[in-house]
User: Fold this.
Amino acid sequence: MAGKVRKNSFGNVDKRPSGNYRARYANPRYGLDDSEPQYISRTFTHKTSAHDWLHQQKADIDRNVWLSPLQAQQRLEQERRERESSERSFASYATQWLEFKKTDWKNSTSARYECVFRDYVLPYWGKRTIRGITKADVRTWIAKGISKTDKDGKQVTYPNSAKKAYEMFRGIMLAAESDEVIDRAPLTPDMIKVLIKNERESPNRRSQRALTGEELHLLAYGKDTINQDGEKVHIKGLPPQYALFTLFMAVTGLRIGEAVALRRSDFNFKTNTFKVSRQYTRNQIDTPKTKTSARTMQMADELAEMMKQHLAALPMTGKDGLVFPGKNGGFIVSNSYIESLDYATKRLGLEKFRPHDLRRTAITNLLQQGVSLKDVQDFSRHETPSLVLRYAQANTAQHKATATIAFQAALATTDSNVTQLPTAANN
Assistant:
C-alpha cells in the first residue's frame, strides 16, 4: 500500500510500495503536443532527493529554461545528428546520393556518371567532411582545372569532363542542403560560367556544325580531281557500309545509337515509316535515350526507295537482321565509324565533324527551310524548344545567304538602284 502523499505548491511526493519516493508534477506542455504526458514523474531512494528535484524543476520553469523529457530527448537527438553531420565525410553522403540517383537513371547514364564520380569528384573531395567544404575550396578546385589522374599518374584536364564533374558536385551539394546535412551549398553562379568559358575556348574542342548538301554528297560518292601529274584520279568517300548510314542520320536526325540498333522489322514500306524503339550504347542494347525518343518516323519516298535497295542487297538475316551492319555483320562500332569519318574528311579536304553533327544537320536544315519549331521538336523529340534551337547551326553558305538578304533588304527600303555605298573616297 502506497504511503501518504505529501503535497506542496508545486507537485507532490509519495512513498511507493517499493520504499522509494515518487515525485510528480503536472506537465506544463500537456495538450500542446500529443506525445506529451499529463504528468511528469521520477522515482528517488530518498524523500529529500525527490523534493530537491521538484524544486529544481519549478525553478527551471520560472527561469524559462525548462524542457519536458520529450523535448530533452529531441534536443539530444538533434545534437547527435548535428555531431554526425559535422563529422560526415563527403564520400559517405555522395556515394549514398549516387546510389539513389541510379535508381532513376538508365544503365548507360549510370555508367557515364560513375566514371565522372570515380575519376574527378571522389579523389578530390572524398576525404573531406561535407560540412567543411567552403566556396573558397570549390573555387580552388575549379582554378586547378578539375583534373583526373591518367594511366601514367599525371594530372590531366578535359574541359568538357571538368564541367560535368562540377555539375555532379553541384547536384550533390544542393541535395545535401535540401537534406539539411549542410546549412547552405558552397556554390555561386559564376562557378559554372568559368567552366563553360573554358570548354568553349579549349583548343581541343571540335566545333559543332551542320554539314552542307555538297559535303554529304562528297562523303557518299567521293570526288574526281587532277593529281600533280595531270592525271584524273578519284578520291573515295566513306566505305560502302558507312555511306548510306551517314546520309540516313543526316536526313532523319537519329542519334548514332538509334541508327545502329535498327532492324529490318522496324521498317514498313507500305507506309514508308520506321520505328525507333531501342539504341545500341556501351556495347549493349538499351531503351531509347528518353521516353519520347521511342517513336515512329515517316520517310520521304526517295529515302524509302534507297532503303529498299539497300536492304535487298544485304544478306538475308531475317526480321531481326541489322539494317546497318558493321564489317563483320555485327553492330557498327562507334570508334571505327568515327575513324572512317576522320579519314574521309581528310582525304576530301573537309572539316572534321562528329556523328552527332549529323543530327544537328537534319534539325538545322528543317529550321532553315521554314519548318515550324513545334514540328521540328516533334521530329527530333527534344523535350523543349530551347533544346532544338541549341542544335541549329548556320553553315558558311547560310551565313553568306543571310548577309545577302540583309544587304538586299536594306537597299529595298530606298527608291534607288544604287549598288555602291558612299565611302570617304567618294567625298
